[in-house]
Design goal:
Blueprint lengths: L1 E4 L2 E4 L14 H16 L3 H8 L3 H7 L13 E10 L4 H11 L3 E7 L6 E10 L4 H12 L4 E9 L1
Antiparallel strand pairs: 1-2, 3-5, 3-6, 4-5
Helix pairs in contact: 1-2
Protein name: UPF0735 ACT domain-containing protein HMPREF0202_02335
Pfam families: ACT (PF01842)
Family: Belongs to the UPF0735 family.
């Protein structure tokens, strides 16, 4: 929903993207580095900010908007949303790829196909931080001919 504030339009809805950290501006990468240092070394944010060499205002401007795809802990749960062509066996192929990467499927929600396209949401659990395997799995799934869309819609 859009709301008008002093002649400007502002979106209340948050939008999330998964991007490669290497394309982010230096200020954002520095905020990420501060968070990593604080987490790994258990030092104060102030000490980490000084060590990284950014201003406190830069850190506090962005800190609430930057979260790693997966945060600490052994078990990771994330969900993917798929638009699949209504063809026999396509969902089974997707599930085989997930199982082949040693990931557990927690839930599957599939809607009835409309105009030849079915929407599916799958919640997946991994037992280790397998970001590289997750990326490979997502690439394998999205390369299937009958997969029209694949989006990661959440993670813990």
């Amino acid at each position: 929903m859009e709301k008008k504030y002093r002649g400007e339009f502002r979106m209340d809805k948050k939008e999330f993207y998964i991007v490669d950290k290497r394309i982010l501006p230096n200020s954002i990468q520095s905020v990420i580095k501060v968070n990593e240092i604080v987490q790994a070394e258990r030092i104060s944010k102030y000490e980490a900010i000084k060590r990284v060499g950014i201003s406190r205002s830069t850190y506090y401007k962005y800190k609430d908007y930057i979260k790693p795809f997966f945060e600490g802990g052994k078990e990771k749960v994330f969900s993917i949303h798929l638009s699949l062509m209504d063809r026999p066996g396509i969902l089974a192929r997707v599930l085989d790829i997930i199982a082949g990467e040693q990931m557990n499927i927690l839930t599957i929600v599939q809607n009835i196909a409309i105009d030849g396209v079915s929407r599916v949401t799958i919640s997946i659990q991994t037992t280790e931080n397998l970001l590289r395997k997750i990326e490979e799995m997502l690439e394998k799934i999205s390369s299937l001919d009958s997969v029209k869309e694949l989006r990661v819609i959440g993670s813990n």
